[in-house]
C-alpha cells in the first residue's frame, strides 16, 4: 500500500490524505505497543521467565533474543518507562516516513539485537529501549539530511523531548544495557543515511507572484545620480517671463525689555 506525500495546499483531498497518514501511523504504533504489553501480560500470567526471551551474547540460544528481546521486559516499571517513548517515536516515524519506516524499523530491530549479541557484556539483555534509541537517532538525522519543513520540525521535537538519549548510550548504571542503546542508536543512524531519499519530499507551495512574467529592471535604475546631475537648491534658477516673486517682509526682532 503506497502512501502519497503530503501536499502543500489544504484542499479536501489533502486533508483526507493527511488523515489517512495519521491513522496509519497511530494504529501501527498502537500495534507495536500492544505487542509488548501482551507479551509481558502473558508471561506474567503464565509464569514465563522474561530472561528466556533475552539476548545472551555469544551463545547459540541467545540468538532467540535478537527477535524477541525487545518484547520482553524485566519488570512492570521497565515496561511502563518504555511505553510512552515507543508510542511517540513510532507514530512520528510512520507518519513522516511511511516508506522508509518499512525498512528502518525491521533493520533497527534486528541490527540492534545482533550488535548486542556480538559485543555486549555477558548478561541477559531485554527491553525495547534499544529500538526507541534507534528511532530517536533515525528521526533526528532524517530531518538534518532531508531539510524539509516536516523533517526539521520532527527532528527538533525529538531532540527537545528525548535528547537525553545521547547520554544513555554510555555506561552509566550497572543494570542498564547501554550496549542495547548504543547498538540501536548506530542502527538508526545507518538507516537514516541509507533511507533519507526514499520518501518523496512534500511539494513546496508555489505562489502566484512566482509565475508572473516580470520585465527585467535595468541596473541603471538602482544607481545613484552623479554629483553634477544633482541640482543645488540654494541657487535660484532664472525666473520665466511673467513670473511674480512674492517677497515676505523681514521681521525685526522685538526691542529688549527694560
Describe this structure in words.
By secondary structure, the chain is mainly alpha-helical. Helix content is 53%, strand content 0%. It is built from 8 helices and no strands. The protein starts with 11 loop residues before the first helix and ends in a 47-residue tail after the last helix. α4 (98-119) crosses α5 (129-146), α5 (129-146) runs antiparallel to α6 (149-162) and α5 runs parallel beside α7 (178-195). It has a single domain (12-195), classed as Rhomboid-like fold (Up-down Bundle). The chain has helices at residues 12-46, 65-68, 76-96, 98-119, 129-146, 149-162, 178-195, 208-211.
Helix/strand class = mainly alpha
Q: How many angstroms does the end-to-end distance come to?
A: 103 Å
Number of separate domains: 1
* Count, helices: 8
Helix percentage: 40-55%
Low-confidence stretches: none
Question: What average pLDDT do the residues reach?
Answer: 85
Beta fraction: under 5%
Major sheet size, sense and barrel closure: none
Order of helices and strands: HHHHHHHH
Shape: elongated
Q: For the record, what is the CATH homologous superfamily label?
A: Rhomboid-like
From the 3D structure, determine the CATH topology.
Rhomboid-like fold
CATH architecture heading? Up-down Bundle
Quantity of strands, as a count = 0
